[in-house]
## 1
Amino acid sequence: MKTILSIVIFTFLSFDVSEDIINALKYNKYQDLYRFLDEKVIIRILEKEDLLSKEQCAANLSAFFEKNPIKSFTLMQNTALSAHAQFIYGTIDTGNNKYKISILIKKSYIVQFRIDYFD
């Protein structure tokens, strides 16, 4: 019974995290994403991909979003992959360009963040 209760509680916490992440993108509050970054994050911004520390990832996201302020975010998919993993996919419109955003969350932390051109 404790195991089932733990899974249910964790599932609700994960959805709360994903809602916070989605709202950060919707309302151009990308700085709110930083508290969810894991200690190491696989980050891809356009054609450049790397495994970076939390601080380096935050700096790269800041540089991108300062040059490309989010005008709108459209959620395409928010899927629980397991009790400990979740995937968010959507698009952002910056006024000049549209980008695909995909985020992998494990245990309430962003472990992968990708920004690609929208085809």
## 2
Amino acid sequence: MDIRKLQKLAVSALEDIKAKDIEVINTSKLTAMFDKIIVATGDSNRQVNALARSVHDKIKEAGGDIVGMEGEESGEWVLVDLGDIVVHIMQPAVRAHYNLEELWQTVPKRTTTRAPKKKTTDE
């Protein structure tokens, strides 16, 4: 299945169950294992599992392959592996703790600050 179609289906499935803060990150230049990750938030174990099941079912209905699903037992973080795309669905505290968006960003954030310029006196 075309990656754009796969992404559109996955995001649509997440939107259908009211996922929050859906973010798609291109990882094709960072790893050869997959091209994109999708990160989304669900408010409870039940919603996280429902979101994962929605992605699973919508991809299957469209003829796509599901490589695997993990984390349904706890419902705090469920991963749906679609091959070229990996979908991470997490509860807010788990998402904040692991901060996958920062981990997978292509341009590192600068945490250093510039030292103030020294004043020179012309005497």
## 3
Amino acid sequence: MNEEQYMQMKQQAQTGNEAFYRPPLDNMEGATNVDHPIPYLDMGTSFLIGLAVGFFIKKSFKIGLFILGFGLIAMFFLESQGVFKIDDKVLEQSISQGADYFNYLVTAVKHRITSFQTGVGALAGFVVGLKLG
């Protein structure tokens, strides 16, 4: 398009020529406003639930690992000072039981999230929640 064609189209649009008139989207029935201050408000309910679950799981997992690590360090320190003795087999069994329980929780959460009608939205929300958390 050259400058002359552009000026001609601009003049036709300013004079109200119906061929170039485009109504604003805000006044159209069924149009949605996509400029929310919080972009996740445009998503569905299942996405928001998945987002909340993913965010909570990541935060609680970090806190749980911090507490577990601190407890193990304190326990190993107290053992090195001769306060008590740690049985390695009992420690391995406890860790194995904890891993089994964690696998059960992961399976339960996965099953619950995919049970929504729009499982894809919930799964996407879960992934975003894990990323944000």
## 4
Amino acid sequence: MLRKLLLIPLLIFTSATCAWAEKLNQLSAADVLGPAAVAPPDHPQPPARLIVDPPLAGPLRKGAVFIQYRAENLRIEPVFGPEALRVTPRIGHIHVIVDDNPWHWADASGEPVILVGLPAGKHKVTITLADPTHKPLDSKTVEFTVPPHEPAAHDAHPQAVRQ
């Protein structure tokens, strides 16, 4: 009896997995990956677009800001300069501005933006998608509140050690 109870969910799972795999088998590499990065596209590229999520709630409660983003119709690559404008499909990077400061930093890692050490309170981060010459292509701003939190161990002043 126990074997039958375990066998039925296993058969259902196997059947569903095979159906899902069958659908994937019908897709070409280009369907999944997009145009080949080694050949120019046959038609004009659609505009680059930036998608930015709000900061992850868990780390934010501890005073750390993790902002995930992704680019559409642009690959994030550490390649800069006017010659890089001819690379197809299009490449670029992001610029990050915190709290409307007059300065920003450029990032080409493609990894989430991570900020630590912001004081508790309201903040905003603007992420701008830029081409290899730093020309802005798309921009998004996220506003959030860093709640009061305990300072991290590395933020606290070290205590004198008694001997």
